[in-house]
Amino acid sequence: MGTAIAGRLALSPNHLLNPIFGDKHTFGKGLYNHRGFFMAVAATGSTRGGGGVLEKPVIEKTTPGRESEFDLRKSRKMAPPYRVMLHNDNFNKREYVVQVLMKVIPGMTVDNAVNIMQEAHHNGLAVVIICAQADAEEHCTQLRGNGLLSSIEPASDGC
Questions:
Q1: Rg (CA), the chain
Q2: C-alpha pair distances (Å), 149 with each of 88, 117, 152
Q3: What's the start-to-end Cα distance of the chain, in Å?
Q4: Please, are residues 114 and 98 in contact by the beta-carbon 8 Å criterion?
Q5: C-alpha angle 30/33/38, rounded to 5°?
Q6: Greatest CA separation found in the chain?
Q7: How would you class 121 by CB atoms within 10 Å of its CB: exposed for 0-12, middle for 13-18, buried for 19 or more?
Q8: Phi and psi (nearest 5°) for 86?
Q9: Which of 22, 31, 85, 154 is the most exposed place for a label (fewest CB within 10 A)?
Q10: pTM of the model
């Protein structure tokens, strides 16, 4: 009975023990580079195609100082929110402001765009959307690119 340790193997034990024609690797001792998955496999039995028992896979740890994809998504979600502010101006028509808001802000409805435009018209300033800083900067740039006055500011209370 021999033990084989493999480097990169398919997750399916069936594939491991019954290789597909054309695979570069046979089941035996040594390191394997196969389909991009890191896995350590121990098998008992013949190395020439016999059955085997698979043990629990060893999961490779991430390199110290390097974040995983999950950590990056988590940090993006926890980034402080920013407000995109629309300033009143005396140059653009109200209908145009509504059209630009609907074009630039994803999911903006006619009713919400009209309410934001009216608030900016009457109060001089209105909150357009609250989002991550990178998105807020992009929305502000697009609003300015369409001739509207806008700015961003941190949303300290998160609302």
A1: 29
A2: 7, 12, 11
A3: 65
A4: yes
A5: 95
A6: 85
A7: middle
A8: -105, 125
A9: 22
A10: 0.52
3-state SS, 77-120, equals: HCCCEEEEEEECCCCCCHHHHHHHHHHHCCCCCHHHHHHHHHHH
156 close to 146: Cβ distance less than 8 angstroms? no
d(CA 100, CA 146): 7
What would the pLDDT profile of 37-76 be if each residue is shown by its tens digit? 444 444 444 455 556 676 776 665 655 555 555 555 555 5
| Tokens matching residue 29 | 């001792």
Q: Where are the alpha helices (DSSP H) in the chain?
A: 13-17, 69-77, 94-104, 110-123, 133-145
User: From CA 99, how far away is CA 148, in angstroms rounded?
Assistant: 11
Pairing state between β 81-87 and 149-154: antiparallel
Q: Tell me the backbone φ, ψ of residue 75, rounded to 5 degrees.
A: -70, -35
According to DSSP, the residues that pair with 82 across neighbouring strands are 131, 154
